[in-house]
């Protein structure tokens, strides 16, 4: 996929799933429907706060390298250990997340490898557009849970996009009243925008904005036969 084409669709609230692009407004968890709200960070407005600087200092002992994505046994083995330790549903393999049985990757995909000496402890996978970066998947060694490596990879991806002078980093979505996805706000809430799928505009993120968007989606967009699940 051409980089400018990926930029275009990301700006419309689309995202990668395997070898296709999709969007959604509602997601099911625990027998309920919640509203999804797509995010992006404006690189020109990024500024680290005390929490971010503290995490960067704490994890500076680990080496980080950005390289073109290549699916390896080392990656899959680490993902298997990560998946066994998490408390939410995840695809069985990295191949299932990114390729879905296809032989060729149509996206321009890279990985940030994080190592403690020679030991691979975390991987952050992302796609490059022409002026954008889209975060796709983070996974890490459960033995290093205390280092907040998921949030750390979010900072590393943000910093990579900023160093390349890109315009936006798209980390995915948050879910109203379902905080498991709120870590995507960690890098810099002041630089974060949320997509208003009704107006088609990106607006500054706030919890109040997301709550208002959620109420509008539930009232006007959710089919009547599904409203009992909300």
UniProtKB/TrEMBL annotation:
GO cellular component: cytoplasm
Protein name: Arginine-tRNA-protein transferase
PANTHER family in the cross-refs: ARGININE-TRNA-PROTEIN TRANSFERASE 1, ARGINYL-TRNA--PROTEIN TRANSFERASE 1
Record keywords: Transferase
Record-annotated N-end rule aminoacyl transferase C-terminal domain positions: 76-184
Classification via Pfam families: ATE_C
Record lineage: Bacteria, Pseudomonadati, Bacteroidota, Cytophagia, Cytophagales
Originating species: Hymenobacter lapidarius
A Gene Ontology molecular function term of the record: arginyl-tRNA--protein transferase activity
The keyword Transferase appears for this protein: yes
């Amino acid at each position: 996929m051409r980089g400018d084409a990926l930029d275009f669709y990301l700006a419309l609230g689309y995202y990668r799933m395997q070898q296709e692009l999709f969007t959604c407004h509602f997601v099911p968890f625990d027998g309920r429907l919640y509203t999804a709200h797509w995010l992006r960070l404006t690189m020109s407005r990024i500024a680290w706060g005390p929490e971010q600087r503290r995490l960067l200092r704490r994890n500076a002992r680990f080496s980080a390298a950005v390289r073109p994505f290549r699916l390896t046994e080392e990656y899959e083995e680490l993902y298997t250990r990560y998946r066994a330790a998490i408390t939410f549903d995840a695809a069985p393999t990295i191949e299932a997340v990114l390729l879905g049985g296809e032989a060729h990757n149509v996206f321009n995909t890279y990985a940030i490898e994080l190592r403690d000496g020679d030991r691979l402890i975390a991987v952050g996978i992302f796609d490059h557009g022409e002026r954008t970066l889209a975060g796709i998947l983070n996974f890490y060694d459960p033995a290093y849970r205390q280092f907040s490596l998921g949030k750390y990879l979010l900072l590393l991806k943000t910093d990579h996009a900023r160093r390349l002078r890109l315009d936006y980093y798209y980390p995915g979505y948050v879910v109203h009243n379902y905080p498991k996805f709120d870590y995507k706000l960690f890098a810099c809430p002041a630089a974060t925008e949320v997509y208003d799928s009704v107006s088609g505009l990106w607006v500054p993120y706030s919890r109040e904005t997301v709550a208002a968007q959620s109420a509008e989606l539930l009232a006007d967009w959710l089919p009547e036969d599904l409203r009992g699940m909300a």
